[in-house]
Amino acid sequence: MLEYIRSFRPFNLLFIGLAQVLAAYFLYFEADIQLLLDRKLHFLVLGTLSVAAFAYWVNDLYDRERDFINRPKKKGPASFNSLFVGLNLLLLILLMLNAGWILGFKFLLCFTLVSLVLWLYNYKLKDVAFLGNTIIASLAFLSVYMVRWLFPEIDIRLLLHFSLLAGLLTLCREMVKDAEDELGDRQTGSRTLAVVLGKAFSNRLVYFLVLFIISFVVISVYYQSQYFAGILRFVYWAYYLLFITVPLYKIAIEIRLTREAKDYAKVSSLLKYVLFTGVLSLLFF
C-alpha cells in the first residue's frame, strides 16, 4: 500500500494543489470559500492533479529500465499488475475529462492536450537535450497561471511572478535531476543535457539560471511591496531573503562543484524546498 501511495508522488501533488488554492484565495482579494466553490476551483485542482498523477505513472512505466540502474530499490507502477495499472490510468483519465467537462471546453481541451504532451514527453521528448526540461517547466508555469482563467480579476503581474517562479525553479530542478541520473540515461541511450554536453556545462547553466531567478525575485518583490503597508512589508522582504533568496545563493554556490549523484539529490531537494517556500509566500496577501 505504501508503494502504491508513493507512486502518486503525494508531496508533489500537494505542492501543485496548494499553489492553485492559495493563488486563487489570496491573490484575488475579494475571494472567500463560497466564491472558490462557485467558480469550481476544486474541479480545476482535481483535473490538474489527475493529469499530474497520470504523468507520474506513465513516467515510471517508461523509465523502468533506467530506474533499475539509477534507483534499483525503487518500486512503482512498473512492478504492479498490468490490469491494475490500466484501471488506475483509466480512472485518472476519467477524472481529468470529467473535471474539464464541468469547467468548460477551454479546460477540457487544455487537460487533454497537456496529457498528450506528457505522454509524448515520456515516450520520446524527455530524451531530447533541454527540450524535455522546458516542457515540464512550461507545464509547471501553466498549472499556476491557469488559475486566472477562473479568476480574471487577479493582478496578472502578481500571478506571473508566482507562475514564472514555479516554472524557472522547475526548469533548474529538471536539469539537476538529469545530471543526477546521468549514468542510467547514458546507458539507456537518452540524450539529456548532462549526457550530450556534460555535467560541467549543465551545472554552469543551472548556476546562471539561478542567478537570473534571484534577480527576477528581487525586482518582482519590490513591485509587490505596494500590496503591503508598515511592518508587514519588511516581514515579507525578510521572508523572501531568508527562505528563498539565501537558499538560492546556496544552490548557486553548491551546483558549480557538484559531480556525484548524492550531491545532485541534495541540490534537487533544496530546489523543492524553495518551491515550497515560494508557494507559502502567497499567505502574505
Could you list some keywords that capture this structure?
285 residues; mainly alpha; single chain; 15 helices
If you had to describe this structure to a student in words, what would you say it looks like?
The chain is mainly α. The chain has one domain (2-284). The protein is built from 15 helices and no strands.
Q: How many strands appear in the DSSP assignment?
A: 0
Shape: globular
Query: How many domains would you count in the coordinates?
Result: 1
Runs in which pLDDT lies below 50 for 5 or more consecutive residues are none
Terminal CA distance: 39 Å
Return the structural class: mainly alpha
Secondary-structure element sequence?
HHHHHHHHHHHHHHH
Strand content: under 5%
Radius of gyration: 19 Å
Largest sheet: none
Helix count from the secondary structure assignment:
15
- What is the helical fraction, as a range of percent? over 70%
Mean pLDDT: 89
